[in-house]
Amino acid sequence: MERNVEKMLKRVSVVFLSIGTMLMVIMILQTPKTCISPEAPSKPHTHFPRSTCDSSPRQHLPLPKKNARIWSSGAWKSRLYSFSTYFLRFRDLGFIQNHTKALCLSAGAGHALMALSQIGLSDVTAVELVDSIPLVKRADPHNLPFFDGVFDFAFTAHLAEALFPWQFVEEMERTVRRGGFCVVAVDECGGDDVRDIARLFHNSKVVDVANVTLEGSKKTSILFKVQDSPT
């Protein structure tokens, strides 16, 4: 009985193996149907078609047109309005003016820079690990390529993501002049957390704390005034 079952299983295995081999040979030999003529010239720059009938190359917009499309989108305008409203408070309180030289750290795509420019600042620099031309330059916020005290105002909304927060803050303070201001926007927090953040700023003192809404999220905004460096 066992021998008969074994023989039957071997026969079934041989049959399936033969069928699989035949199907593989057919697939190899069959020429795929396509809408691209065999005589069509080769175009190395052409992207691989999304389907067998899509042989047209994708259009690549020039950078100015690409940026114009992004900046005119509803999502961009919404975030820009949020940042503009946020910075207007500092202007109304007298912490920034049109001649203020500002720095935005970990600036992403450049919403903060554009917002500061929109409310009247004429000299704004934004840096990020990956540049976003023409708004944001590539630089490591932990090792800024600027001289000491060259800015009046520095801002970041991404201190929590810094690899080394103490070094990030140290570079903020170093590049802002004495009497200038450093601002951080963090997830909404209370007194203990604010004090923990303040301890990172060895050369500054807290002058303003406010709960705000930024980019649709509840944040705590902390403003520091840069003092003399310890001797």
TrEMBL record:
GO terms for molecular function: S-adenosylmethionine-dependent methyltransferase activity. InterPro entries: Methyltransf_11. Residues 39-61 are annotated as: Disordered. The chain crosses the membrane at residues 12-29. Residues 104-184 form the Methyltransferase type domain. The keyword Transcription regulation does not apply. It comes from the Eukaryota. GO terms for biological process: methylation. Keywords: Membrane, Methyltransferase, Transferase, Transmembrane, Transmembrane helix. PANTHER family: F21J9.14 (PTHR45085), S-ADENOSYL-L-METHIONINE-DEPENDENT METHYLTRANSFERASES SUPERFAMILY PROTEIN (PTHR45085:SF3). This is Methyltransferase type 11. It comes from Arabidopsis suecica (Swedish thale-cress).
